[in-house]
Amino acid sequence: MLESSRTLDLRSRLDFAADRLRASAGEAHVRAKSAGEPILAWTSVEIPAQDPLTAFDGGRPQLDRRMLFLRPEDRFGIGGIGTAWTYACEGRDRFALAEAAWRRVTERAVGDDAGGPVVMYGFAFEETDTAWDGYPPGLLVVPRVLVWRSGDKSRLILSAFIEAERTPTAAVGATVACARLLRQRRDSPGMDEIAAPFRVVDEFPAAADWKQAVRETAHAVRSGRLQKAVLARGIRVRGGRLDASAALRTLRTEYPGCTIFAAARGGRCFLGASPERLVRVRDGEAAIAALAGSAPRGETEAADRDLGAGLLRSGKDRVEHAVVVEALRRGLAGITTEVSGDDAPRLLTVRNTHHLYTPLRAVLRGRRSVFDLIGRLHPTPAVGGVPKDAALAWIRRHERWDRGWYAGPIGWADANGEGEAAVAIRSALIEADGARLFAGCGIVADSEPDQEFAESDWKLRPLLSALSGA
Questions:
Q1: Which residues of 179-203 are buried (b: 16+ CB within 10 A; e: fewer)?
Q2: In this structure, which of 189, 192, 334, 370 has its CB flanked by the most CB atoms within 10 Å?
Q3: Is 338 among the catalytic positions?
Q4: Residue 285 known to be catalytic
Q5: pLDDT tens digit sequence for 363-384
Q6: Count of CB atoms within 10 A of residue 224's CB?
Q7: 99, 228, 399, 455: which is the annotated catalytic residue?
């Protein structure tokens, strides 16, 4: 059978990119020998329109080395497979360490004039969260192969880390072999093939314990010890065959206004559909989303309108939201010349949830990287609490489980430090024998345990539905 012109064009572009990478690698090898340290070589070429999720799916032979970041509504996405360079960090200064490590790599990198390199990253909720093997407190990855799509245009970024004492052939060869995976068509499994009954086998903490923690947290807020704390809970499911790529396709279709993300490591995959952007840094400005206060969608159009209007009127939810907005503005103080945002929250509506939402835009004072902004803003009161240190201590004492990457920042950055971070909520960790799903609720003075538990249940539904094929 004759190959399509598109496939032939992709093959020719891959060959062209491979030749350019070899040239960059040769120069990087010279620099590496002179500097006595490895140098990143990269190249970027335009390719026929390519779906980053298809690239992520096509990288299945690299099961433990894939990452994905999609903004479907913005027609933007990045899919990365393989690892050319990686850096792990921990501790309170992990965001500064990540920024310094990435800057050191980009300052010495050898490549084209524009279009790369790009690093993808994920961070645990806290600097001490280490229970997730393969998901350290901070992780930066330059994929060997990265598909970047913006609108109707796609480009391919190939990267290789070149060491002084070795010829570039092996490193470049590994990247080119990884790139060839893009030419292998992989049909997404049908939903009938992946839909299989599974059951909830555990919840952490137990429902009664979690409700008691909500009760105690609300009392702590009323007594003035806290302004707000976010309590999260999780469930563990088993049974059936859970397919990450199929779940991601479902999430992209059903939640186009969210950030769809995934990080496959060590045979597991952390994925989700987050409605919350932590920060985007571009052209000297920062865009930030204050998101707090939620209500379910209605079963009829009239009921849905009433629920949305009720959320906008809710004193409890408005207080919870205002705490987040105030904390974000404080986090931006001193590094901005102006911060603009609405005086009152608006509704942000996704498939199963209404949220109170206030977008903020800030003009940055001097050059600031996305890692700098993450370090100043994370964790926001939307996933942590106020006062921050007291709330985090309270969360550790009352949740009694390691959040890992749940509610941590996940995203990407370019060579200039510009990029984007989403808050990894509405998420799940797929494992060999099932999956763990996570959801949290902001607790303030008027919070009721049964209502908060019900809220956490419907926040778990998007991932339950996507994983089950329902």
A1: bebbeeeeeebeeeebbeebeeeee
A2: 370
A3: no
A4: no
A5: 998 889 999 999 999 999 999 9
A6: 8
A7: 228
